From TrEMBL:
Membrane-spanning segments: 12-32, 44-61, 73-93, 105-126, 138-157, 177-197, 204-223, 235-252
Classification via Pfam families: PrsW-protease
Protein name, entry field: PrsW family intramembrane metalloprotease
Keyword Membrane set for record: yes
Species of the source: Nonomuraea longicatena
Keywords on record: Membrane, Transmembrane, Transmembrane helix
Domain of life (superkingdom): Bacteria
Length: 268
């Protein structure tokens, strides 16, 4: 039974992607430790930061087929520039408005970052393109992935300076394991709600459901960050963190469970 479960896990495409990317990151770290060649350091940080988000994308696409709803060039642009713009704006407002990350101001993080990550998907929606729930989830996940990878890379470089590349990879591995319960889940949920409404109306409209989806994502994001900002978490706060994580993923999964991959071989 145990062997059967392990084999089924290896059959999952997302798991193989995650293992290969983590292995590549660790291999880069081994090369650096053995040779001192710093040329491999950026690649080690990138693969470590991207492993979790990319695995989450693959798992979601295999379950829902959202990657088929938007052309690859548009998804790549949203990943590169949407994620970059979101991080740039979040970095600006986080630094301007949050002076003490251990104080109550940390509760603003979710509202800032979820707004920043939705900016590019909203801009695309306003052009009238990809106004379907599947298209919106694809755009939201692409933008959130860009944001998550870039943000994790910053944590990786901070850990690199403090304790070396091995410590940096450990930090990135832990962050990657939280991916299904954080940035991609929050933004994916908000986009599923908003684009689902816009698909029914045929245009961008502002309804209580659209606002409520963004608000719930922002509240969960802020709750997550506020719990993690506490230096030493007592048991009850760890329990709260796990509850927030479970709610985050459950909402995303529920909001996207009606989406299915296109049937191969059937006429369009």
């Amino acid at each position: 039974m145990h062997r059967h479960v392990k084999w089924r896990l290896w059959q999952a495409r997302w798991f193989r992607v995650w293992v290969l990317m983590v292995s590549t990151a660790l291999g880069m770290a081994v090369v650096f430790e053995a040779t001192g060649n710093q040329a491999v350091v950026p690649a080690a940080i990138f693969y470590g930061a991207a492993a979790g988000p990319v695995a989450m994308l693959v798992a979601t696409h295999d379950r829902t087929g959202v990657g088929e709803r938007v052309p690859p060039a548009s998804l790549l642009s949203t990943f590169l520039f949407g994620g970059g713009v979101a991080l740039m704006l979040a970095g600006l407002f986080d630094a301007s408005l949050i002076k003490d990350e251990h104080g109550p101001q940390i509760l603003a993080v979710g509202f800032i970052e979820e707004s920043a990550k939705l900016l590019v998907p909203l801009g695309i929606a306003l052009t009238g393109q990809y106004l379907t729930k599947g298209g919106g989830v694809a755009l939201g996940l692409a933008c959130a992935t860009g944001f998550a990878v870039l943000e994790s890379m910053s944590y990786g470089y901070t850990a690199l300076k403090a304790g070396g590349l091995v410590q940096a990879e450990g930090t990135l591995l832990v962050r990657g394991l939280t991916t299904p319960f954080s940035h991609l889940a929050w933004t994916g949920f908000a986009c599923a709600v908003a684009f689902g409404v816009w698909e029914r109306h045929g245009r961008v409209v502002w309804t209580a459901a659209v606002f409520g989806g963004w608000l719930l994502a922002a509240v969960l994001h802020s709750a997550n960050d506020s719990l993690l900002s506490i230096g030493s978490l007592p048991a009850w706060r760890w329990a709260l963190y796990l509850i927030v994580a479970a709610i985050s993923y459950s909402l995303f999964h529920r909001a996207t469970r009606g989406l299915r991959p296109y049937e191969v071989g059937l006429p369009a």
